[in-house]
Amino acid sequence: MITAPVSGKLVIWRYDVGAMVRQGEAIAEIVVGDQVMVVHAPVSGRFTEMMALPGDEIEAGKVIGWVDAVDVESLPLASLIDEPSRKTRKPQRKARTRRLNAPWLWLIVGVMTLFGALAVGVVLMLAPAEVRVESETSGQPVPVPTPRFDRLERVIYSNVEMTESMQWGMQGIVQSAGYDPDSGTWYDVRFGDELVRVAERDLDSVGVLAPTPTLFFDASHWPNTLILKEAVADFPAGTRVQISSASFNGVEWDLQVLTENNRSLNVRESQLAYPEAFTPTP
After folding, report:
1. Could you give the domains of the chain?
2. Which helix (H) or strand (E) is 185 found in, with range?
3. Please, what are the averages of pLDDT over each run of 10 residues along the chain (282 residues)?
4. CA angle (182, 183, 184) in 5-degree steps
5. Neighbour-count burial for 123-160, b at 16+ CB within 10 Å, e otherwise
């Protein structure tokens, strides 16, 4: 079970129900005052239930969800996909014929009696045509294709039709996969801080891209020559920092920095700047 470490407001679940998670992975976020506390998965396995929804006020120690323990490392990605429910066979509708009601029958008998064979021809021409409803083809189980990308594999968004939040070339990391009979295989991909569900047709291997871009800030000028462009945690904009490590998340560089009082912070490259009085060496 997943319990809340603190009292506050649940703001987000980072995974959908059914996703596979590893022990220690961030699975939810709780806001306490101005701070965001991360809730970690207690075990590796399948995330099976949300007992609290984003926006709910929760108390410390309250059970907010469940993870069924599974040895994630020993399972291939294909086995982690929920097989789609088989399409239920719709009941076949038997072909039916529109029957003539009693008045029509009596009229036909009368006309046939009076006019003989000619009347029969007229009745056949004027009588309502037979209506038949063909039975539908019964559904068949849809086979689940093998996913193209593995969990934690780095991919790029390859759809050239850009949206407000997505554009071609953005790099992300596969978190989980699934299959829908109508739209095909899908993946939950983490692009920086955002988890996005993307169709397989909109993803490609990172091999089609150029190498990882170079970090903007020169390593030779790291000590105390950078400032925060915006407030991070409880440190205001303008706080001087120095970089201790850096990694590329597929969208931009993630940096770990130290403040002048040796506090460690995680920031993005876009949150840093050179002080106005400092001019980097070309």
Report:
1. 2-74 (2.40.50.100), 154-208 (2.30.30), 219-273 (2.30.30)
2. strand 184-191
3. 88 88 89 88 88 89 86 61 47 49 64 63 53 47 82 86 77 91 91 90 75 69 74 90 79 83 88 72 45
4. 100
5. beeeeeeeeeeeeeeeeeeeeeeebbbebebbbbbbee
